[in-house]
Design brief:
The protein is built from 7 helices and 10 strands. By secondary structure, the chain is α/β, with parallel strands linked by helices. The protein is globular and about 55 Å long. Bound molecules: S-adenosylmethionine.
Length: 241
């Protein structure tokens, strides 16, 4: 048995295997939407160095939250059972929080960030309303984020995008969300990783869409990256002017 493992690992690291794997494709222009096949990978734009110079690295999103100002106004897209919302709201003493989710029991979510309540007699939405009932500034909004976000009129100091990873879903969400952020405010995105992710059976385009957004929006820079134990690293980008 040991022998088999040993042999296969040697085979997998042999130089000829470097020619296997996904075909590298040119980046998709900012004004075009093109779908590459599962066997292809889109080369991302580099984030210009001057948009990286003030970036910090964190062990968890909660350690990052401690560096944010107090009394923030917060928007979370993809709330699931409210684990990250609770942490960001409490650590920053948020003055307000809009919490957007389909509230359909986080179905089809592999990493919901906290488990569902056992034997709950209330709906997902009601569960979140009850959970945050202690806070008068929390607003629970049920619906599809891509439809809800363009209707929001508040300005936020922090927006956490923790739903969807499809290339153009994130591109469009970033475009909308960037208009809702105060100067000095931040947008955080989870699953900042490349198409080759082993976890999903679909393309993960967060990496390409974030890099592209930074490249075309020079008044934004990377504030922080949060490392994740499964490689779902997070990126927090800041609006500087
Ligand atoms: C990864 S979970 C969020 C985890 C949560 N932020 C945490 O850390 O505790 C993703 C959530 O996004 C929701 N979701 C997925 N697509 C959505 C969409 N288009 N609009 C609104 N919510 C969506 C799912 O229902 C799920 O509850």
């Amino acid at each position: 048995m040991d022998n088999v493992t040993h042999e296969s690992s040697i085979e997998n690291t042999s130089p000829e295997n470097w020619t296997k794997g996904k075909v590298i494709r040119e980046r998709i222009p900012y004004n075009k939407q093109r779908i590459y096949g599962d066997h292809e990978i889109e080369q991302a734009l580099h984030i210009p160095q001057n948009q990286l110079n003030n970036a910090k690295l964190f062990n968890s999103r909660y350690d990052y939250a401690k560096t944010l100002g107090k009394g923030i106004s917060y928007l979370e897209l993809g709330v699931a059972w409210g684990t990250s919302a609770e942490k960001f709201i409490d650590i920053t003493d948020a003055k307000s929080a809009d919490l957007v989710d389909l509230y359909n029991n986080a179905y089809a979510t592999r990493e919901p960030g906290g488990s569902a309540p056992k034997n709950s007699l209330v709906t997902h939405e009601q569960h979140i309303k009850d959970k945050f009932s202690y806070h008068p500034g929390v607003n629970v909004i049920q619906g599809d984020a891509i439809e809800i976000v363009p209707t929001l009129t508040n300005k936020y100091d922090l927006i956490l995008i923790d739903l969807g990873t499809e290339r153009f879903f994130i591109r469009n969400l970033l475009r909308h969300c960037s208009k809702l952020v105060n100067v000095g405010g931040v947008i955080g995105l989870t699953s900042y990783m490349n198409y080759d992710a082993i976890h999903y059976e679909q393309h993960v385009g967060t990496y390409q869409s974030v890099n592209e957004f930074l490249y075309y929006n020079k008044n934004w820079s990377v504030d922080a990256m949060v490392l994740h134990e499964l490689g779902f690293h997070e990126i927090y980008i800041k609006k500087n002017s």
